[in-house]
Amino acid sequence: MKNQLINYWRSLKNQEQQLVIAASIILVIFILVIGIFRPLNSAIDAAQQSQIKQQELLAWVDSSIIKLKAGGANAIVTNQNISQVVNSTRGRHSISISKMQPSDGSLRLTLDSVEFNKLVQWLDELVNKHGLKIENLDLSNDDKPGYVRVSRLVLES
């Protein structure tokens, strides 16, 4: 097969050989553009869009946390302790608490996976309706879109 190609190449005229070489170069360039550069550019664009969305989400989360922390000053204070308030309100917002550690005047919670919007609504209720203060809140992304993990949530009365 190799010998046949070499013999065929030698039988071509000089102009035909140059034409085949030029066509081969154009074909290689076309394959590089279509097969490598175009998908690479698409992946870079998608990554940039994802980064922009993540930055917008982070800014929104930060502003939501600031609003929640600031809203505690106008809240109505109840006579229930923190654990009772948390347990009585979490069901309405579908919040599943994996760990609860009461302390003097505070409560530390850990939530495995919770929908972010429900978490914000629940925290808003705790702060604005029950007079609790968010002392500390550590969030991280969950595998599911729109969900977060709360590694530490410290509430104070």
Walk me through this protein's architecture.
- There is one protein chain.
- The protein is of the alpha+beta class and 157 residues long.
- The protein is 57% helix and 23% strand.
- The chain has 4 helices and 4 strands.
- The protein has a 4-stranded antiparallel β-sheet.
- Helix 2 packs parallel to helix 4 (116-128).
- The longest helix has 57 residues, at 14-70.
- The protein is rod-shaped, with a radius of gyration of 31 Å.
- 10% of the residues are buried.
- The mean pLDDT is 86.
Q: How are the SSEs placed, and which strands pair?
A:
Blueprint: H1 2-11, H2 14-70, H3 82-90, E1 97-103, E2 106-115, H4 116-128, E3 133-141, E4 147-156
Antiparallel strand pairs: 1-2, 2-4, 3-4
Helix pairs in contact: 2-4
